[in-house]
Design brief:
The structure is a homodimer of 296-residue chains. With 296 residues, chain A is α/β, with parallel strands linked by helices. Chain A has twelve helices and nine strands. Chain A has two domains: 11-181, NAD(P)-binding Rossmann-like Domain (Rossmann fold, 3-Layer(aba) Sandwich), CATH 3.40.50; 186-293, Orthogonal Bundle (6-phosphogluconate dehydrogenase C-terminal fold). In chain A, strand 2 (36-40), helix 2 and strand 3 (58-60) form a beta-alpha-beta unit. Chains A, B: It holds the Pfam family PDH_C.
Chain lengths: 296, 296
């Protein structure tokens, strides 16, 4: 690959200046050469907030004007908006403009890009920064959000290597560790380690919340329940879109998990103490070994 | 009920001076009148550690000697040891000695007490402090562990009201909020809000850890996975015992959860966007409302 320094971008256009897009803007402000950052969004309110907070230099609702001489377009809006955003920028792309995104699912986004960008599809690099999003909105943006975090790029065989290298350099400047996968491999991995746990947490809370004695149950739920269900507090609309976008992989994961639960249930039914302990020991060791490898 | 001040106990014997027992000892040291605290344990090492840390005044391996003039016995060792501990103290109980425990399951403990204590069973008050136990051992003990935490007592119809009142006062002196339930109601509630989530977390980690691509999956697991699986790092032997001790209620919870998962899966299979969003919204609201009510 070719390496680039922070002078590679003079003007960056960010669609969606919330936690994800805003944090990219803030980290770029720590570079030696700071590009101009133009924010584009649906909500005039969060654009104004992003401007006040100094995340962006210019707030734009006029896409044509925002796109003039843009080196890079980062789409950090809800994935459901991605096709419309791609359609709106298509007429304003020049041969050098690089387009990337930050969506949690990638097969769908790559398909949108292929459909909407036509002969400019090779300038699009799908991306997914793996950074927590408990809080959202411009005020949640942090300059150090991506330090040590994984960012996955899902380029196509046709994607320009220059585009891949420059988007890689962008995320590395934010402190992230960049990997590449196919869109399908990405979606399979995140169905297992992220989308499935979210659905399991939603299911547990719903299972208890709809009972007649829910109030009693919640009264005595403590720290284990708190951590297990934290992700059940996530944004319902976003998770509806993720679940539907990654439906096939997620259905496969739900099936495997139900099988794993049935096997554990069988051990409990026959009161197989050794079998249960072996399973708990293996899982406990795997989880604690994993935790040691992570920057939390 | 009758109220007691901190002079009610002159000598307390604690079996198992780890996080739970050691934290009770530490909180009692903040009282106006500090009882003598005698620690009894299997491991001479943690007894010595508890002594060095000032959790206990005396470390004993001789039960007869430890029990002389004891006002209160707190059993804070693994539940599997409870029958043997009750058997060992039975000959040394006088008419005024009160016995309580801190086990996570109560139907089994109440049955052990009935079987082992005979005509002294009415001096036993089953108890369960709902306090996090990520760390364990004497060094993990904290004087403020129980402040604002729930403690559930599961007295029998025969239990002496004086014994119930004094154990209630003990936990209130530690800053806890004391409730009463039947042993079975306790076990049903905790099967749902604690034992089930632990098994679900163990099952998820095991489901991923045994795959050929486990390393890749764990590499990209992030903060949502970290919190969801924290309780899968819990003590395997302890959770084996809890699962077996509360087998019937836990099997019922596993069945209900599998049904809840199947209903969610059905919504995803037919791509029912409204159904999924309604479920996620209801669960998300319930979880976030719950979190607001908790001292975390």
């Amino acid at each position: 690959m070719t390496w680039y320094n922070s002078t590679m971008f003079k003007k960056i256009v960010i669609f969606g200046v919330g936690l994800i897009g805003g944090s990219v803007a803030l980290s770029l402000k720590k570079q030696a050469h700071i590009p101009q950052v133009v924010g584009v969004g649906r909500s005039g309110q969060s654009l104004q907030e992003a401007l006040k907070l100094g995340l962006i230099d210019v707030a734009e609702t006029d896409v044509a004007h925002a796109m003039q001489d843009a080196d890079l377009v980062l789409i950090a809006a809800p994935v459901a908006q991605t096709p419309a955003i791609l359609r709106s920028i298509r007429p304003h792309l020049n041969a050098a403009t690089i387009i990337t995104d930050a969506g949690s699912t990638k097969s769908d986004v790559m398909a949108y890009a292929k459909a909407e960008l036509g002969d400019k599809f090779d300038q699009f690099v799908g991306g997914h920064p793996i950074a927590g999003a408990e809080k959202s909105g411009p005020a949640a943006a942090m300059a150090d959000l991506y330090i040590g975090k994984n960012v996955i790029l899902t380029p196509d065989a046709d994607t320009q290597s220059t585009a891949i290298d420059k988007v890689t350099a962008l995320w590395q400047q934010c402190g992230a560790v960049v990997s590449r996968m196919s869109p399908q491999e990405h979606d399979n991995v995140f169905a297992a380690v992220s989308h499935l746990p979210h659905l399991l947490a939603f299911a547990l809370v719903e299972d208890l919340a709809k009972r007649d004695n829910a109030e009693l149950l919640f009264k005595f739920a403590a720290s284990g329940f708190r951590d297990f269900t934290r992700i059940a507090g996530s944004h319902p609309e976003m998770w509806r879109d993720i679940a539907l976008a990654n439906k096939t992989a997620l259905l496969g994961e739900l099936k495997l998990y139900q099988q794993a639960l049935s096997e554990m249930t069988a051990l409990l039914e026959k009161a197989d103490a050794d079998g249960l302990q072996a399973l708990f020991e293996h899982a406990s060791r795997a989880r604690n070994d994993w935790a040691k490898t992570k920057i939390q």
